[in-house]
Every structure is written in structure tokens, then in C-alpha cells.
Amino acid sequence: MTDNNLPESDLPKNDLPESESSEASKKDKTTSDKHKARMQKLKEKVDSRIDSATDERGLLIVITGNGKGKSTSGFGTIARAVGHGLNAAVAQFIKGTWACGERQLLENAGVQFEVMGTGFTWNTQDKEKDIAAAKQVWVKCKDLLADNNIDVVLLDEMTYMLSYKYLDLDEVVEALNNRPKNQHVIITGRACHRAIIDMADTVSEVQSIKHAFDNGIKAQKGIDW
Ligand code: ATP
Ligand code: MG
What is the tens place of the pLDDT at every residue in 92-102? Predict the structure, then answer.
């Protein structure tokens, strides 16, 4: 027991006998020197990559995969762009039955929304109606993809329109290729078509490790919509 009545084992580690304490501090110093050297090397590598990345042009970004976070990521980028005063537009190819929070917020911030008239395609089960609705939104998308004043376009859930063949792939590729040089486009949705992945600059696949829904937890306001 010590003066303050704490057992030795409860004392903080730096209350070691002098010799052990200086050994420990030597070891700490070596570790921190090693860390510093490693970080310096990393910084040099990153700096040189930053220096060689000089190209500036609009990006095509794809967020695909089965995990949660694709639309969240797309809307996050739109919010980021709007925060910098950029002009953004959103096309939603599969509209949920609920008013989504991001639309309410971003429309108030001046973001143009083009929303497919039908609900989830598996709800309507009317293929012809879905195709007509998809084409209607696509006409608006073509305008957005030809508009020099729009800096960022989010094509949310567009991948399904291509996998169901509701939209013509060649037409989509052409519109993407001919868009203004500095316009960024984000495409979200599962199973993105290979042709779009090949032409994209950045592609991320969100993998599902687990999802609350699998445990019977219903979609939550502010989290899922
Ligand atoms: P979010 O809009 O939450 O970013 P997402 O765009 O990645 O999701 P979508 O396939 O568009 O995924 O899913 C829309 C809805 O389905 C959301 O409510 C989302 O929480 C839910 N969801 C997404 N991934 C899964 C999954 N792996 N299992 C069950 N539900 C999911
Ligand atoms: Mg989504």
C-alpha cells in the first residue's frame, strides 16, 4: 500500500521505479521516431501523387453493390457541392412511397429534382407504365447532361433502368460522353452495367456485412429515407 492507500497495481504506469521508467521512455522515443519516419515517407508518397494529379475535369462516379449507403453517398456529395455554391440536380429513378428527407432539404437549397412518377417498380408491376415513366425522367436527364450551368448531377438508382432495359444503354453512354467537360455525374444502384463501370473515373462497391432489416427492424425515418 502507498501513502494514498492505493494498491501498487492501481497506480498509473508512469509511476515506475526510475530505471524502468527511463527504459520505457527510451522505448517510447524509438517507437515515436519510427512512427515519424514512416509518416514522413507516407507524406512524401502522397505529396508526389498529389503533385502528379493535375488533370481537372468532371468525374463520372459510380456507387454500386448490395450494401446500404449508395444513395446516402450520392446525396452526401450533392450536399457537399451545394455547400460550395455549385449548381446540382438530382434524378430519382425509383421513388419511394415516403417523402425522402434529402429532397425536402435540397430542394429548399435550390437543387432541381426530377422524380420518376411511379413508385417502386415491384409495386406497380406494370412494365409499360414503368418504361414510360423512366423515359420521361431520362428526357429531363438529357437536358441536365447538356447543361453547362449544372455542375453536379446525381442519377439515383439509374442502374436498374439499364438492367431492366427500360433505357437504351447506348443513348445513356452517349449523353454521358457528350456532357460538359467539367460536369460531375454520380450514378447509384446495384449491379451497375459493365459499360458504365468501364467509362467511370471512380467506382465504389458498397458491400453488405449486415443490415438491420435482416433482423426485422423496419426502415427508419432520417436513416433510410
Ligand atoms: P441508402 O439510401 O440507405 O443509402 P442504398 O441506396 O445503398 O441505401 P438501396 O438499394 O437504394 O440502397 O436501398 C434503399 C432502401 O433499402 C434503404 O432503406 C436501405 O436502408 C435499404 N437497404 C439497403 N441495403 C440493404 C440491404 N443490404 N438489406 C436490406 N435493406 C437494404
Ligand atoms: Mg439507393
Answer: 998 655 678 89
Measured in angstroms, how far is the CA atom of residue 219 from the centroid of ligand 1? 9
Q: What's the 7 CA to ligand 1 centre distance in angstroms?
A: 53
Atom of ligand 1 nearest to the CA of 69: 4
| Ligand 1 centroid from CA 174, angstroms | 29
CA distance readout (Å), 26 to 14, 46, 70, 181: 13, 30, 48, 56
Ligand (nearest to CA of 102): 1
The answer on 70 and 35 residing in a single domain is no
pTM over 0.70: yes
Same domain? For 31 and 102 the reply is no
Residue at 9 is within a domain: no
Q: Is 98 in the pocket of ligand 1 (CB under 6 A)?
A: no
**Domain identity same for 197 and 86:** yes
> CATH number of the domain that 184 lies in?
3.40.50.300
SS3 187: strand
Q: List Cα–Cα distances, 43 to 32, 33, 35, 46, in angstroms.
A: 16, 15, 12, 5
